[in-house]
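To whoever is covering the structure queue this week,

Two jobs came back overnight. Logging them here so there's a record in the thread.

Job A:
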Amino acid sequence: MSNIPTRLADALTTYSKTVILVVFVLTVAIGAGMGQVEQQSDTEQFESDSPAADAQAYIEGNFTSDDGNDEALVQVIQRGDNVLTKESILESLSFQQEIQERETIRRTFTAERPVFGYANVVATAALRADQSDGDGGDGRPTLAEQRAAIEALEEEELEAIVTDVFGPDGNPRYLSFMPASYEPGSTTSQAGSTLVRQAINVEVQNPNSFPEPLTEAQLEIREIAQDRSTQYSIFGFGILNEEISQSLGDSGALVGPLALLFVVVALTVAYRDLLDIILGVVGIIGVLVWTFGFMGWANISFNQLLLSVPVLLIGLSIDYAIHVFMRYREQRAAGEDDIGIRRSMSLALAGVGAALVWVTVTAAIGFLANLTSPIGPLQDFGIVSSVGVVAALVIFGALMPAVKIELDGFLEARGIDRQKRAFGTGGSAFGRVLSGGVAAARRFPVAVVVFALLLSLAGAYGATQVDTSFDETDFLADSPPEWTQNLPGPMAPGTYQINEDLEFIGENYQQEDNEAEVLIRGDVTNEQTLRWLAQASEQAGGLDTVFVGPNGADITSPLSLMQRTAARGTEAAAIPAAERTDQQTALAEFAQAYDQAAGEDGVPEGNVERLYDLLLTANPQASQFVYNADGEYQAIRLQFGVTGNARIGEIADDNKDVATTVESASGGTLTATPAGDQVVFDKVQQDLLDTVIQGLLITLVAVFIFLSLAYRLTGNPASLGFVTLVPVALAVTWILGSMWLLEIPFNTLTGTITSLTVGLGIAYSIHISSRYELELRRRGDVWDAMETTVTGTGGALLGSAATTVGGFGTLAVAILPILQQFGIITGLTIIYAFLASVFVLPSMLVLWTRYFGPSGYFPGDDNPPGESHAESDEQPAVDAEGDAS
């Protein structure tokens, strides 16, 4: 088995042209799948199976309007020192006029009152005061009539109307147009809202399926607002989804070229040779072609997590390239010129090949640990990253060496010298810095290990303090810095505003669809059901996470709908029966039935099923809170709006408490399941944390077993596998401690950091350990072996670490905050892994050699080299990278 690396290296270098042809054909075949890769940017893909997710799906599938036509709401928030002045109200009406003049926007409107806001409330009240035959606010006066009514008002008249319609005795629905800070009856407000209602004639379960015409209309509304002198904040799901999707493409267009540019610069420093730089870039492109081609054939969509994969593979690819090319340069500079190019590459591949295979396997193990996660995109991340690592091994372990053999041979045959010095060797400044790890290992190895362990204890404490985060806003881009606007067209990012708008809306208004839900099933027609709802609603109203506007807590249930419908029915009952419309008759009938069933506290006790029947007739929108299938009432729901700055975990806990209250009050008659995005996202957060812990444990155990077996099978003590892994485990604690210090939470990207640290970091340790074992047997002296290892392989590690850190560092300029965090934390991961391998691992290897490894390699040792403390050396020793001693 020990001769396999040598034989494989000989075959690859002997039949270099065949290798080039075979790999090229494979690249073309696999790359053909690139055109099939689709983009997916919604947050629902991160959800896993859970009672909350099932309940949410039940709500979305069954609680719909009777006519089957649902609405999409666009919140238009006008901002200013005081939006209740005549000028501001006229501005709002003018803005509405401009919206309604756009055909692309108008054709998405609902049939009933598609645009209505605080300005319309004031204007219709002004018309009602001026016209005895007005509609009382429920008719449809034209915008021109509304403008005329406002313009005709004196300041005192306007203030009187504002005080009336937005006062404590005004219509509670109208107060919802005012911000949470508004004092009912006040004539000043820093914000006022207008709702634009769009008709959805198709079922929308997935943000990606949100109708494109509605999205285009919402974007056009925002464009109109941005062109006006007044400041507006706009929110709609079309805008939200568009910005999430756009940020994915813009981030890739910005980060990709910058990462490639940095790699070229770094390779220029490391290689100092144009041909090798070109080979490195071509090889990276080949790896990316394999990876994205595989995604196409495997039907894996490109999502936010996978945006980091190209940068990851760029770093790994260069790591492979540098180790192969630098070892090749070392072989050529070792006084063995007569063996020629082909033989030098064969020796280089034989020497470093086993380590590259081990690095590939351990990195793949780290990435594939994400398969234990119930989160689909994390599983995709693990699979795609693993395929990319294997592609890097094929491209840089076979194709690029074969191409380099042919090109170097072609050039040297024409008198062009192709011998170059390996980075970090030859007494360079970098070599002297790297020798610091050897000096520390020689003088105080125990102190180095103890210091590293103490750092790890501090890091382990920090790890327990790291938060976990999953929220839609994680995938929203910040406003790009001004310098990005000067970039070439394809790289220049678009406009991003919704993050800022959401922050303002969340602080001042109930954000559309930002509600917690409780799905209630069972005997929902029980005579006490409405009283149980009243208890749960009262509890919800006192929660800190529930949004409280000028007219109180935002809580909706069949009971609250009954109360509002009964109030409208009382007004309808005042109209003579002969003059009522069918709708007014239904309202009046419901109000009468409600009053008859109501107890002393106003909550009905009994006749619940008939109240449901009458409610659905009088108020068709109630079908969104009462579900009847085949004549049987099967479910109801309780919904309460939550504040924009509440933590998801707190919202989920409060929601669960309300659900528990319903079940407890009903004595098991009803089952209540918490639902809503916050509860679902809280489950995702828990899944993320589980992924971090499980991924780390699985990766550490699997890598330890693999390394122990690999070293043992190549003639080395299995304990060398443990020693190789320890510095990486230390680096894991350092990076988790850094996340705590930098206040970076575990999210969908940083949640992969533990397995990624082991998967990437083990490469540095493997290269050092394997080279050390090789040099130890070759040179027979621990210090000569360590010096050669750290300055030779350490130099290559420094070059690969620099390019990898730089590649991930470019993510810091990404417009997505989670990508910025991932870039920073992954860059630190590489730095820590490098430092651990060249400054901590040498001391551990020295201690291992003295107490557990082969004996006789320290000056003054009595035992001859090759005699191990743990086992006899009856068989010829074989180095860890495939060379016979």
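Job B:
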Amino acid sequence: MSYPRSTGLSGLLLFVLLAFCAPVHATTVCVSSAVALKNALTAFDLQPDGSTYTIKVVQGTYPVGATLAQMYGEIGGGEVNLKLLGGYADGCGSRTPNPANTVLDGLDAAHSGIGFLMRGDSSALIEGITFTRFKGAGNVPYAESEVLLIDAEGSGSDAQVFEVRQCRFTHNSGQNIVRMSGAQLRFVNNLIWDSTLAQEAQGVDKGAFTVTLDADLDAAVTATNNTIVGTTGGPGMRIGTLITGDSGRLSEVTDNILWNNPSLDIQFTGGTDYVYPLTASYNLYATANANFPQSPTDLHSDPHFVDLANGNLHLASNSPAINKGAFLQLSGFPARDLAGGARVVGSRIDLGAYESSIDDSTTAIVTRTSDNGNNGSPTPGSLRAAIKAANAAAGPYTIRFNVAGSCPRLLSLAAPMLDVTGDVTIDGTTQAGWAPNTHYGAFDANLCFYVNGAGNANTPWALHVPSSAPASARLVVRGLGFAGFNDAAIKLEGGHAHSIAGNQFGAVAFTPANASAIRVTGNSGGAFIGGYDDEAAVNLVAGSSSSGIYLDNAAGGSVVANNVIGFQADGLVGGPNANGVYAFNSKNNVVQYNYIGNNLSSGVILSGSGSSGNRIQYNTIGMAYDGSPAGNGSAGVLVSFAAKDNTIGAPLNATWGGNLVVASAGAGVWISPSGGTGNSVLDNAFQGSSGLDIDLASVGPSANQATNPAAGPNALQNYPVLASATRDLVKGIEVVGGTLTSAPNTTYRLDLYYATVCSSAAAGRGLAQVPLMRTAVTTGALGSVPFTASVPFSWGGLPLGVISATVTDPAGNTSELGNCIGETDNDPIFADGFEDAHG
């Protein structure tokens, strides 16, 4: 079924879409006493399946002793997302997320601690709380003890995210202070100090912070900006793995301080066979075992805390950790430091949990909007003069704003702006009246300084890093608006590690469009466009006459995350670019969590043989944040001109990362006739595409090939032909039977999809409204195999519909969706035939 752009989605498909995107139920409780906290935690086990349960803890000290010592979630059977958040004022109307304000005191009681058992796809976030004087709650029968334990039930799920953020752990003891095991484990911006580890079971691991990466999951750990100091009896940070190199996720251990942990500061376990993708850099520590991948960026000197003996682990003014962190973090910098203060102050983030107020950059203040266009003798107080001074500086340089008058202030360039060749931060958030964006799907920031090129031929860009700039050149731009530039408002041809966050490109009244908002090209290294875990980092990219974000640098490696692309500032009305995001001969870029809609051509384009290793994941393509359709004028995602080995949705061995693609005027994902091979299209959900949800080669369905693989996009991978589909309501599974004919003696990934109806774009073909789950089928010596496959079906509220499938070969070539087959129901109530697959 296809949907005209003007009519929206039908009620049934909107139900499917919302079921796919949102939790069924959400409950929030506000607690202000130890008894209320205990009751709230106990109620976690009673929450409905698929819900989100938020416990807001009012500021104060809670003498809980051992009363919280329980494995919460062990009794309940549902998938419930948990948020345990400290720092609230009375009534929970406002919040100051400094963990020093919300203290859980274990009173040195024996077996004190807290644990959570998370089921299915559920996630957990613990933030803004101090845990002190806990003795570790025993986890019988395993004889382990932890202060805080977050664990997955059974083998867990690839979709689970367990995060401990901005918390303090002081004067605690146990086998582990914090222990986490699961798929996505995040320990960010925390302090662990003065811990005593005791071995309670022979051969069981221990550490102040301990994670275990399970080979059964697509697992990864993110440990960034933590301070772990003064651990006795075991290592400060212990990361164990059973992964043998098949994880599709990249782990990151960056910007931590680990010091004065006498056993080891960092311990990695696992023999030479146990490896996994990992980046580790910019850490400060004294000792690590041989398995830890040390980096030349690491530091090994005393971090110089303000008062270590008394627990003040802020950085002293002579600390080597100040302004010495990584230029970028894979998951984005923390939005604030442990005490709730600003991140980042100075040219680079500080190591550890606290950010110093020391700014190592020289500063210029822009005080006027006038511009004489003279690079040799610019108007004093102008942006041009500030950039000239920045280029002449020997070190990092920050440009701030203090222009008189009310917002907004408009700078109209009189001539091409001076190139940026130094390490320069242009911070529009410093202009009086600026306010940050507060929404991931819209842009409600109050910007106070705009730069206008007026569409003049002599103003191709507002800011430009030339290809001749040194490798140390770096441009950071925050909180500015741009309009009227006929190349790109920001063009990055040289330098590396640029950051463009919290800006508006286009959608500015009474100004002409930009050709592109941001272009990363030439010999420039990766750029970070947008950000993670911080609404203020969202960029608005609207109305570009060419591609909104254009990546054509051979080095690739840019991140485009959490931007609003093709919308007006409200996130609802269209502000179309010609294309949303265009990667041309650019590799290893990450495009995640963006809203990309209303663009005149495609939402995302991957083009050119150099475009490989790109990851398009978790995006909402063709829909506004309120669920209304905002389809792109052609394909949701287009792959062309030999672009190859890209990931659109889940990695080959995983079920996470899927995009939601809605209301495309063409195919949902189109691997065009010129497209390359190895492009996996997995675990995405599609609604209302005018064409096929997944289309290979020419527009419209491609027949299965007599011999496979064949010459063509994605090797014209054959699709599986289904013969039967039965929903087993008792077991909660879908059982399908069919046949696959392809390469001999090859194991294929088989993905099943649910839809309410078959495709109207191709008679008898399927739609992928709801991805179910993957399994595997292996062909025989003749290349053909009949199969019966069972996958979980957890969408019990959906009516009986139709099932279709894709297969993906070991090289990543995904087929089109095959034929659709009506579901039957094994429930004996319907055995008399009064209800068929179409209700």
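Note for Job B: The chain has three helices and 66 strands.

Please reply-all if you pick these up so we don't duplicate work.
Q.
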